[in-house]
């Protein structure tokens, strides 16, 4: 099956940075900065999806938007290729500063990517002409809005999102508004839809009607996949999920979706299925899976108000992944990124701390470690400690056992001992 260019993650990376510079140059700006806006700082999200990666972890909302905007101004134009606005557990369109970030992104001559549940599109259009302005800022196909819809009807959407009201109808209307504005303004921006398959939303009848609906609306792409096992689970539990859900459901969904899959990249919408092999825990456990080159692809400003080495672990629950508090200066940010571009950091540090790679990171790190297999032996797995009660994951965190590696040097052995009781 053909794959759209924006889903060829390793090519995207090596178009940005030469492979020979990875782990060899003193500093490289990553391809993109991910910014997880802290919703409205009252709630993390207006939906309660059963598969939400951050829902069982610490959902802190401490990011200072004004400080983030000031930092972006100081970073200046032509530094990052992309600014990505999504969240490990937040809905970016709930944030009152959202459009300020969009305007500034384009002022900085960067592309933007938005990952949203779509619930606010219609409301914001009626309130402030949001969709009209957003489309006006889409200068090329590389500026995109991606809607995580995950339901082909109000009924399946309510069950999937764990809500008791029909949000689906307004989301569909919001997508129509975006596409209509794009046609009216002759914009080149991309409008994508993602659909996570489950027992409520995957009947042949529902999928057929939904795909026809997306063709009628004229979105650019429609991606189907199986939900990722949540972070915060031990490896054995993730492997069990793989066997009971991913392996079992894959064959069924692959056969069911096959008649609808696009054969050419020129088809609109481009309909495709991202198989579970792209999120396979056992690929990450391979002995050769060592260095993390994904830090050259992205750096992340989490909604908690910290910089993280990876968007997958952008929650205080994965304290070992924090590089520092939200920086005041560009030089502070650069020093944090330098720390993350570490040839000795081992991917298994994350996996053994109940985290793991997302699909982009898995593809990039797999290809990188195959390319660099003669020299990736310097990666060393670091031990982490879990601090907190096991049955209260949202209150606990994984920290480096080696106090010298911790971003917060005040968190010493005495603190751990007290917190662990």
Description:
The chain is α/β, with parallel strands linked by helices and 421 residues long. The chain is 35% helix and 13% strand. The protein has helices spanning 9-16, 65-75, 98-107, 121-128, 130-137, 154-161, 168-185, 204-217, 235-257, 281-284, 330-340, 348-351, 359-371, 413-420; strands at residues 32-35, 82-85, 111-116, 144-148, 190-196, 221-225, 270-274, 298-301, 306-308, 322-325, 384-387, 397-400. Strands 7-6-5-4-3-2-1-8-9-10 form a 10-stranded mixed sheet, covered by helices on one side. β8 (298-301) and β9 (306-308) form a beta hairpin. It is globular, with a radius of gyration of 21 Å. It starts with 8 loop residues before the first helix and ends with a helix. Residues 412-421 have low confidence and may be disordered.
């Amino acid at each position: 099956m053909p794959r759209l260019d924006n889903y060829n993650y390793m090519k995207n990376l090596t178009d940005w940075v030469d492979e020979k510079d990875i782990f060899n140059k003193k500093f490289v700006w990553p391809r993109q900065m991910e910014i997880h806006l802290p919703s409205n700082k009252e709630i993390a999200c207006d939906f309660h999806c059963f598969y939400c990666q951050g829902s069982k972890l610490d959902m802190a909302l401490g990011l200072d938007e004004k400080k983030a905007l000031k930092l972006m101004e100081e970073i200046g134009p032509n530094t990052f290729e992309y600014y990505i606005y999504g969240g490990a557990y937040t809905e970016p369109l709930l944030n009152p500063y959202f459009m300020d970030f969009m305007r500034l992104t384009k002022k900085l001559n960067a592309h933007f990517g938005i990952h949203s549940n779509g619930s606010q599109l219609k409301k914001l259009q009626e309130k402030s002409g949001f969709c009209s302005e957003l489309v006006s800022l889409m200068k090329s196909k590389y500026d995109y809005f991606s809607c995580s819809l995950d339901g082909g009807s109000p009924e399946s959407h309510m069950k999937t999102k764990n809500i008791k009201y029909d949000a689906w109808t307004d989301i569909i209307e919001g997508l129509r508004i975006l596409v209509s504005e794009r046609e009216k303004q002759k914009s080149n921006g991309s409008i994508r839809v993602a659909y996570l398959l489950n027992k409520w939303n995957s009947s042949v009848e529902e999928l057929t009607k939904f795909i026809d609906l997306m063709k009628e609306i004229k979105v650019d792409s429609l991606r189907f996949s199986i939900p990722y096992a949540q972070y915060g689970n031990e490896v054995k539990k993730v492997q069990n999920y793989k066997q009971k859900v991913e392996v079992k459901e894959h064959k069924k969904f692959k056969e069911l979706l096959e008649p609808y899959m696009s054969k050419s990249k020129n088809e609109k919408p481009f309909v495709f299925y991202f198989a579970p092999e792209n999120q396979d825990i056992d690929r990450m456990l391979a002995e050769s899976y060592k260095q993390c080159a994904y830090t050259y692809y992205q750096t992340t400003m989490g909604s908690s108000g910290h910089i993280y080495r990876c968007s997958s672990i952008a929650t205080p629950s994965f304290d070992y992944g924090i590089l520092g508090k939200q920086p005041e200066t560009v030089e502070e940010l650069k020093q944090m990124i330098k720390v993350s571009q570490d040839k000795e950091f081992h991917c298994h540090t994350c996996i053994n701390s109940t985290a793991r790679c997302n699909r982009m990171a898995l593809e990039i790190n797999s290809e990188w470690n195959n390319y660099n297999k003669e020299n990736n032996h310097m990666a060393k797995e670091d031990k982490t400690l879990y601090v907190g009660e096991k049955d209260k994951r949202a209150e606990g965190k994984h920290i480096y056992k080696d106090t010298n590696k911790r971003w917060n040097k005040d968190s010493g052995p005495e603190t751990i001992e007290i917190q662990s009781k």
